[in-house]
């Protein structure tokens, strides 16, 4: 019994002392507001230093962390736009604007144009795109960029092939915040929504990081297998005029190569590659891409020729089987055929898109005039295949009319 009394007493003493301590603390904080400030300041500093540490750890791109933390916000913030890039130098302004026009005419998702151009062209691009009707402008945004190269080798890169053609190799390093990108040459015309080719990204398996079409369908008349003095992809090489990239993967991948035994990152690989092959390459950066995917074939998704349809597919006879079945999806007027009289069927498509006034009925002001113009070309090699040029376009025009 005595034992219990003792314990009770002890508890009471302890409780009393605790109360006294609490009051004392309270009194001291009321008396000295300064101390709060100091403590608060200290805590703020603490949080800051914690954040800095966090940011530093995050910086090298631990993407998994973000994804894990914000499963839902990640979805909300996901970029639903299609990113389309082009590099325009010299007298390519008008052609580039026509390419962008074909993109915006048929596409469904919002577009973002990344326009790399010589400085003196920037104003012209801006005023051309700003002159489009506001309903059309509501479907895209654009950014203009100067042509830039890694400073230490700028001159070497500029000399390679055409002045700015090798710019495209650096897009994954310049557009660091863009996940995926469709790069096209200026002489591309979309005959169906850009959304369709963008859709290939979701068909990539885990090793694919870029998609392109073969350079040729017919090895007997193809270039790489007959003349190239460097490795190239597959049987006939690849054409880089329409190039879809998951740049997140390009930035993360270590590429096998024939310069060192260790795999190299994209940015580490480009200059040694140029140094090794500069005397042997003919088509500039397309050759470098062929060398890269020769050594890393599992990384390339190859789409068929109607996604990059060139004069080569019709001037030696029709050799793009898929276009014969489904029509041409993306027209690539290389060899200058939009601007001379060598392949008037290509030129007819270019001019039909250029002359179509935004907002007018596309059947009357685009499709019908084009069909008339193509009928006058049926005595030429590509004119004979010209029904392929409108096959898919008809459908695209019908669909776009229904949407808008
Ligand atoms: C263009 O940018 C503006 C401002 O950031 C944005 O509100 C708009 O949705 C964008 N349009 C498209 C088509 O992405
Ligand atoms: C360049 O071409 C020459 C002649 O075909 C060949 O001997 C040489 O090995 C090639 N260089 C490289 C780096 O492949
Ligand atoms: C690109 O690849 C990254 C990494 O694998 C992936 O998280 C991202 O969703 C891919 N982008 C598209 C558009 O598929
Ligand atoms: C992805 O597909 C390519 C063929 O396009 C193939 O070589 C590669 O092995 C595939 N990768 C995986 C992980 O299945």
UniProtKB/TrEMBL annotation:
GO biological process: protein O-linked glycosylation via N-acetyl-galactosamine
Main enzyme class: transferase
Topological relation to the membrane, as annotated: Single-pass type II membrane protein
Top-rank taxon: Eukaryota
Compartment(s) of residence: Membrane
Keyword entries, A-Z: Glycoprotein, Glycosyltransferase, Membrane, Signal, Signal-anchor, Transferase, Transmembrane, Transmembrane helix
EC number: 2.4.2.42
Signal peptide range: 1-29
Gene3D superfamilies noted in UniProt: Spore Coat Polysaccharide Biosynthesis Protein SpsA, Chain A (3.90.550.10)
GO CC annotations on file: membrane
UniProt GO MF annotations: UDP-D-xylose:beta-D-glucoside alpha-1,3-D-xylosyltransferase activity
Reactions that this protein is recorded to catalyse: 3-O-(beta-D-glucosyl)-L-seryl-[EGF-like domain protein] + UDP-alpha-D-xylose = 3-O-[alpha-D-xylosyl-(1->3)-beta-D-glucosyl]-L-seryl-[EGF-like domain protein] + UDP + H(+)
Region (Disordered): 42-74
Biased composition (Basic and acidic residues): 43-54, 64-74
Function: Glycosyltransferase which elongates the O-linked glucose attached to EGF-like repeats in the extracellular domain of Notch proteins by catalyzing the addition of xylose.
Family: Belongs to the glycosyltransferase 8 family.
Protein name listed in UniProt: Glucoside xylosyltransferase 1
Gene behind the chain: GXYLT1
């Amino acid at each position: 019994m005595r034992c219990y009394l003792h314990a009770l007493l002890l508890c009471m003493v302890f409780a009393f002392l605790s109360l006294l301590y609490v009051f004392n603390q309270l009194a001291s904080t009321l008396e000295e507001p300064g101390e709060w400030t100091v403590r608060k300041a200290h805590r703020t500093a603490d949080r800051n230093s914690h954040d800095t540490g966090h940011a530093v750890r995050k910086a090298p791109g631990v993407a998994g962390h973000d994804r894990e933390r914000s499963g839902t916000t990640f979805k909300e913030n996901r970029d639903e736009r299609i990113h389309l890039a082009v590099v325009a130098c010299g007298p390519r302004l008008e052609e580039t604007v026509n390419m962008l026009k074909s993109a915006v005419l048929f596409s469904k998702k919002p577009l973002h144009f990344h326009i790399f151009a010589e400085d003196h062209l920037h104003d012209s691009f801006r005023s051309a795109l700003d002159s489009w009707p506001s309903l059309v402008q509501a479907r895209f945004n654009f950014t203009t960029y100067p042509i830039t190269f890694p400073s230490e080798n700028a001159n070497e890169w500029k000399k390679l092939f055409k002045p700015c053609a090798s710019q495209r190799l650096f897009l994954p390093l310049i557009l660091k915040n863009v996940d995926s990108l469709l790069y096209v040459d200026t002489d591309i015309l979309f005959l169906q929504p850009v959304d369709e080719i963008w859709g290939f990204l979701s068909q990539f398996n885990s090793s694919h990081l870029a998609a392109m079409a073969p350079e040729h369908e017919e090895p007997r008349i193809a270039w790489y297998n007959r003349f190239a003095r460097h490795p190239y992809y597959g049987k006939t090489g690849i054409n880089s005029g329409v190039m879809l990239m998951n740049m997140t993967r390009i930035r993360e991948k270590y590429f096998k190569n024939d310069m060192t035994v260790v795999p190299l990152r994209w940015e580490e690989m480009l200059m040694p590659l140029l140094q090794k092959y500069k005397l042997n390459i003919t088509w500039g950066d397309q050759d470098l891409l062929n060398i890269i995917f020769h050594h890393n074939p599992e990384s390339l998704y190859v789409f068929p020729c109607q996604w990059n349809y060139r004069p080569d597919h019709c001037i030696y006879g029709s050799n793009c089987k898929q276009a014969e079945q489904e029509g041409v999806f993306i027209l690539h007027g290389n060899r200058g055929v939009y601007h001379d009289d060598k392949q008037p069927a290509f030129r007819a498509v270019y001019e039909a898109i250029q002359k179509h006034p935004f907002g007018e009925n596309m059947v009357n002001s685009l499709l019908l005039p084009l069909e008339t113009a193509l009928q006058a070309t049926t005595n030429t090699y590509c004119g004979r295949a010209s029904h392929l040029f409108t096959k898919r376009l008809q459908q695209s025009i019908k669909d776009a009319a229904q949407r808008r």
